[in-house]
Request: fold
Amino acid sequence: MLIGVTGFIGKVWLANTLMELPKIGRIYLLIRKQKSNPAQQRFEKIVEESPVFDPLFEKYGAGFAEYLRDKVEVVEGDVTRAGLGVDAEVAGRLQRNLDLIVNSSGLTDFNPDLRDALATNTDAAMNILEFVRGAEHAGLLHLSTCYVAGERDGRVTEKLVPNYTPRRVPDFDAEQELRSLHELIAKAEAEAEGAEVTAGLKSQSLAKEHAAKGLQGAALENQIRKNRIRWLKTYLTEAGSRRAKELGWPNTYTLTKSLAESLIVKHGAGLPIAVVRPAIVETSVAKPFLGWNEGINTSASLSYLLGTYFRQLPSNESKRLDIIPVDAVCAGMTLIAAAIVERRHDSLYQLATSVTNPCDMGRSIELTSLAHRKHYRAQEGLESWLRLRFDAIPVSKERYERMSAPAQKAIVKSIQRIMSPLPLKKTPLVKAERNLERLEKLIELFEPFILLNEHDFAADNVEKLSHALVEDEREEFGYKARLLDWWDYWINVHIPALRKWTYPLIEGRPLEARPARSLQNGETVKTGTNGGTW
Amino acid sequence: MQNPCGTKHALEPSNQEQSNYLELSNHKPRVPAVAAPTVYWRVEGSLLDLTVVQPVAFFTWNAQTFAERFRRRGLIFLMAALRPFLYSTNRKFATRVVHTTLRGVTRDRLDLLGEEYFQYRLKPELKTHGAERVRELVRSGADVVLVSQALEHVMKPLAQHLGVKRVVANRLEFRDGVATGRLLEPVIRPRGAFARIREQSPDGRRAPKTLARQLDITVEELRAATIGSGREPGNNQLCILRGSGRRRNFRFGRLWPAST
Reply:
């Protein structure tokens, strides 16, 4: 059973598995209902719209729906609920039949609302663990992230440390931490309903600068309710982020993922479980096809920035930017899945390149600039001519603050101050100031990946699995992150893929139009456990 | 054609060739075993009127930082002033001196700029008669080797464009993916002062002995200098011992497979 098929890795793993292993028995997909959109419809939409499934459509043509009916079953559920939110009868059947649960679900926003992060990244893992415990023979492949290592330097080995904190906080107990975080949430929710906060929110709603000034009655109550939701979200986002930093994690995402790992170590003893930590998962090199990427992920915003006139990126040149193609991650997952089923697995696998095929920040920045250069060189016009001459360079934090965005922002503010006595309708350079602020925040967000801490993530365990394959299978199922040629990857694969799939989203443009396709083809194919049909 | 990471590019060599290069990552690429007769083809005169300085000047002008660009361009102007004297004294030495301006430039940059230089500067000036003859030779099954005084970064895209699988070109020494400014032996010196008048034929074929004599090397050295036209994979560093101290990272050492 695959949990998290709507995510980047989940989709690619499903598509690659269906492509490479046509003899696979059955894959159950646990998908959450989204308001009025049932799980079945969500999956249909994904299959019809996502380019990930292009190779499968090409291979099976009109028979693809039939193939899916044979191999895939959608199960409506919710990992954040006990028993995975699945009907008891369906749950019983699954627990009897399942060989493996692949949990690739997660909330990958760096600093989300603490409630969401805990529910999706930590509580969900516990629910899945309980489900596995109740299963007859199912194993669990739990996807985490290499960056649970947090604020520490040096080699990160493939060893799970119970109750881990990067700052090595003595007597830290993950279970106790989870409890206190839930208490914090409950307290914040109570506080949000309290008289003091309500009064503050009311005055905010009635404030002169507020858009909804002069409200009364139900409209005012409604506005207060909206403000309360916003207040609580901001409060819990900040609280999560603050707590993560106190313990040595760069953000809430890594804190909650690490808590899940610690709890799995504690409660999963004796169960067939492998924790898999990919590094920064990026564009595919072969499967489902060359150059697939999705959404605004870790490197997209930064690489986009380096394609503009922005030049000085604060970074540690020798720090290794650990990027790994999504198909390498999926190949690793398949190997690990097979190992779990055969009970020959290790407890932790890191899917990373910083040790086996390192590419440091200095090189990554230069390759990104060169990739942009290649693009702009092929374009016409003054803008492109100028842009290809602005290569980004790695600089120290001090130089960045002295010469880049912070300094420019200070100049903008000075200009605004000087011009403030003038009778102007609008404050000058407001847009420039806003852009620079946004830029500063972006850099700050990515500092753990580009400036702070030097991690070298060992990835020996998956290499061993790959090496153990027979020669014939190694070509198709082998783990080949070691063989990546970074020059080719950045210049001809990754940045062009981001330009196609991600930069339009950053710029607020629609993605390239694709011909519509349908699974229907005149036939209705029943595949869903809960009665969904195609 | 597909490279080891599965990417497909028209300019890439075949799987087999690429895997050969991979085995010797950062070393001189293994020359594919070829049974067909070898034809050495001098690029200058027959395919292009190429000087040593032009591509180097292009590389220097496109260094990573603005300061580097001006510094290197200044050096190029200095070289241009010295060049007539150096060229008339010793063509090999003159070639070495010009390439010292590329010290500190990364292999990544040179590979991309080489591709760009070929695509936008050299390709439009490619002599059609000469190019057609090379293609005919390749089609006939001959093992064509392009020989040029230019850097491999420029010659490889030309070779790939013409379907040629091997080249003899000047090669920079790299450490940790960064050019040291030294040229590896054998240095392919420019043609003589009157070559532009004497050697303008579209037929660039040269007998190995004649070519070796012109380059002031032995035939064995010429054969040994032959490299594949595929791009070499980048600089993989192997960290042999690493740890973290109280205040900052320390590193006992890194092992760099010599990229020569």
Remarks:
- Chain A touches chain B at residues 152-155, 285-287, 290, 325, 327, 355, 357-360, 363, 366-367, 369-370, 373-374, 377, 391, 393, 454, 456, 480, 483-489, 491-493 (CB under 8 Å).
- Chain A has 21 helices and 13 strands.
- The longest helix of chain A spans residues 217-247.
